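Ticket #4471: structure export looks truncated?
Reporter: QA, pipeline team
Priority: medium

Steps to reproduce: submit the single chain below to the structure queue and open the exported record.
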Amino acid sequence: MGLASERLPYLERAALVISVTATGLGVVALTAAHWWWLLAAWLTVEASIGTLWALGPGSTSRLRALVETAPTALLVLGSSICLRQIEGPWRWISLGFAVALLIALLLGRYYSLDPQSRLFGSARFASNLVIYLLALGYFAGVYGTRVRSLQSATAITLVAFLLALYSLGPSLTRRSWLAAAVSGVMMGEVTWGLNYWPLGGLVGGLFLLLVFYGLTGTLHSYLLGRLTRGVLVEFAAVLLAGFAILAVSSILVG
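Actual output as written to the record:
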């Protein structure tokens, strides 16, 4: 019994998790109670447990299973907070976007577990896209608060570590744990230094995202044994172009 024989049950379980989570996010957006954060916390736990249930028993190790829940938890928690800050039609557009990300995350991750699947390439792209969008949201949100460096750098270190560990999988090895830890620590260091620059939340978040992309992409190639001079040049070119566009945009807007 391979992955192909488990697709229908998985899709049914994933659809149920997505439906319940989407309904819960709608309730979080609509409720006027001051204790909405309790509902958001419960929904985050529910979605995390639902992710493990959707993956099914035996699909991952216990440690890997805990890692698999991190992006789902970050997505649901972040979406709940954002939905409380947005009014009017944009609230429902944001809700639809959050649900679309959840669908891409759950289905993308599942089909990217089988390198032989014809959907592997598309699934890997979808899964990585959600990770980078989550990173951008949290990086911009945390940096935009302009809190003390100890607080912002610690928060971004934790988020970067969890997302890097997820994206460097699916197998968990000592090297992948070390690579994720390096990514998290370096992101924290960059955030600490970036706090001395008078940048807006979105610009700072984009800057951090470019650094995160460069770190995780390079480390992933290294773990796969594909880190060559050409790969390094490719990443360097993308990062330099991104930083240049970001700098020009900041000057024009500012």
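Status: closed, not a bug. The export was complete when the record was re-opened. Leaving a note from the reviewer for reference: DSSP finds nine helices and no strands in the chain.
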